[in-house]
Amino acid sequence: MSIGRKRAGIRAGFALIRKQHGIYHMSEFFVLKKYRKQGIGKEAAFAVFQQFPGDWDIAQIPQNKPAQAFWTNIIHDYTNGDFADQFSHKDNVRFQTFTSVPQQKRSKEATQ
Prior knowledge:
alpha+beta
């Protein structure tokens, strides 16, 4: 999936998603440096979660503090804090787990 702003025709990055044992994983997520800190990554992540509703597991290596901060903030905003943030000593990764739901269902839940 390419990341960009449709109205401007910009291709600002990409996301690679895989599904294993019924769980989605963000294999790669990249935004070109000149497009970072503009909300494009958040917009793209939300779009990916909407396109692939279900259970998610997003992992980061311990040394990549910017990625940990990015994903924790994005997932917190997307789920309104309804996610698990954990560390696997076996795999030596920090990871977040949550369930994405289609936009129609998210809109109904927000109004209840």
